[in-house]
């Protein structure tokens, strides 16, 4: 599963860091359009994550969702080469996120059910490390291609090759067999979930509401004057830091507790946006700040998922990851929309300061 994620992310991240450039220079759209695109795409994905998570608990089969999920995403990305308006990009991002929504919860539940409790942090940390390794390879490939003069259109088309490989490996995946759970009807409710898990979901929801799409960060560095080929390299640097620290941070959370690492990561996020709000020129500090952002991702991505597994029983995993993914994805819709509106209407400093204040309040809520 880690190898599949690496290959798929190399395809996805060939495209992702170039989208703000494509949006502003080719499609002639701004932050408001970006907020609408990313908000709707993530909200749609989150709804599907709940659906597939619940279905996984009933059928105990993840492979079909992985195959269809990687397939839909892989087919949609190259279509960006043929569009001429931002609503068309919205449709393609929608399809890409549908693919992510189909595969995410069954994959997470499969990972949790394939190991024992004492290794949850290690397993999810390793998976996130592999995922981010792909997010290093993809942007570096994009940077090289941009540097040698390959057009954005052709780069989007080339992203189809690793996507095909990811789908092929998904077809060969052999998953551990579990007996299907016999129930009269599908249960979407959290009624039987532990109170500790419900409290955790509230904290995650509040924190995610104070987030925005990573594309805004790439949009900002482009505004500051970063060269086109440097933007994918910057994003690869974030993924490199995340890859290096994700597995050890998550493994350490097995020993020292999840909450300590979540608090550390979320505090790093608050500080990152505080300093980004003050940045008004392009210098080496930007590279250091984005490395700091990689530390936030390393300290939270695997740990957040391991904590879901900690708080739930085996027969609840799919539904639990479905609700977790639903909330983290759905809350990005208002978050990205508000951030995009503030960015375009009042300027990036106001938008970033608003986000930093919201993060601080969310962190205080988490502590209590």
Can you characterise this structure?
With 368 residues, the protein is mainly α. It has a single domain (2-173, 194-367), classed as Growth Hormone, Chain: A (Up-down Bundle), CATH 1.20.1250. The chain has helices spanning 2-15, 19-25, 31-59, 63-76, 86-113, 120-147, 152-158, 160-171, 195-209, 215-223, 230-256, 258-278, 284-311, 317-330, 332-346, 348-367. Helix 1 runs parallel beside helix 6 (120-147) and helix 9 (195-209) packs parallel to helix 14. The protein is globular.
Topology:
Blueprint: H1 2-15, H2 19-25, H3 31-59, H4 63-76, H5 86-113, H6 120-147, H7 152-158, H8 160-171, H9 195-209, H10 215-223, H11 230-256, H12 258-278, H13 284-311, H14 317-330, H15 332-346, H16 348-367
Compact description:
This protein has 16 helices and no strands. With 368 residues, it is mainly α. The chain has one domain (2-173, 194-367): Growth Hormone, Chain: A (Up-down Bundle).
Give the helix/strand class: mainly alpha
> What's the CATH C level?
Mainly Alpha
- Please, what is the CATH homologous superfamily? MFS general substrate transporter like domains
Question: Per CATH, what is the topology?
Answer: Growth Hormone, Chain: A
- Report the portion of residues in β strands: under 5%
Report Rg. 19 Å
What is the overall number of helices? Answer: 16
Number of domains: 1
N-to-C SSE series?
Answer: HHHHHHHHHHHHHHHH
Number of extended strands? 0
Low-confidence stretches: none
Shape: globular
